Amino acid sequence: YGSEYEAHAYYLKLLARTDPKGELASRLVKYLLNNRKHATYWNSTRDTALCVEAFADYLRGSGEHKPEMTVEVYYNGQLQKAVEITPKNLFAFDNKFVLEGEAVAPGKHQVELRRKGAGPLYYNGYMTNFTLEDFITKAGLEIKVERKYYRLKRVDKTIKAAGSRGQVVDQKVEKYEREEIPNLATLKSGELCEIELEIQSKNDYEYLVFEDPKPAGFEPVDLRSGYTGNELGAYMEFRDNRVVMFVRALARGKHSISYRMRAEIPGQFSALPTRAWAMYAPELRANSDEIKLKIED
């Protein structure tokens, strides 16, 4: 009852009959595919069955279930493979072209797909690499994460409170002002810092991990792992060399989560990028920028 996926499935069934080749129908299919749980189902057997049924209606309405085409894969202008796709081998054709090792030489390369025949062509590209760059920059598509360091400066703050006899008294409270710390900045040993992860998600996702490596000269203020009452309801683990946050559900939109560390050991240190990924769909991943900081006595 009240399932948004069930409503989307019925709307897709309507589009499959009225405008199956329109942009809205294909975008709705992508949205439903991106919001599966563990890449296999939605919320219940009922809305899962309706989504699968709606997909079948869309395939019939758009004609995508009857491709008759040959796809040629060119790498740097040279034909590497040609694959015939028909209704008989729609779910079993050779759908991979892999380049690895010495086949990927330094320089610019071009992968080109050419289609002959009828039917839409969908493709994805994945790349894994080991980088030697000195400053690692942020990356991400469906989810993005940006890490910011702040210097916390203590300010005097008092509030009105009730005294022992019920009288109004001034009571000091802990309050800080935040000052963003840029890359290559210098901090004093003992200074308190706040690390904030700003997260942007294009869809609703479940079971994500955010792993934030800490610079060697810093130590977290909180030492006990657990639920900290943060906005995302994340379980936070404070480990020796990183802080790990486990998020049960991440809604569409922008979010933030933070924790505090103290600069302790003098020296120059680097914090590797924050890494984010889905536990059951590891291809969904992102990382933040690296940051380098210096601590002085």
As for the CATH topology of the largest domain, it is Immunoglobulin-like
CA-based shape: flat
CATH class of the largest domain: Mainly Beta
> If strands are numbered along the chain, what order do they take across the biggest sheet?
4-19-18-11-15-14-13
Series of secondary-structure elements, N-terminal to C-terminal: HHHEEEEEEEEEEEEEEEEEEEE
How many extended strands?
Answer: 20
Task: Write down the overall mean pLDDT.
Answer: 91
Global structural class: alpha+beta
Please state the CA-atom Rg, rounded to the nearest Å: 26 Å
Largest sheet report: 7 strands, antiparallel
Question: Would you give an account of this structure?
Answer:
The protein is α+β, with helices and mostly antiparallel strands and about 300 residues long. The chain has three domains: about 5-60, no CATH class; about 70-120; about 140-295, Immunoglobulin-like. Helix content is about 15%, strand content about 45%. The strands form five sheets. The protein has a seven-stranded antiparallel β-sheet with strand order 4-19-18-11-15-14-13, with no helix packed on it. A five-stranded antiparallel β-sheet has the order 8-5-10-16-12, with no helix packed on it.
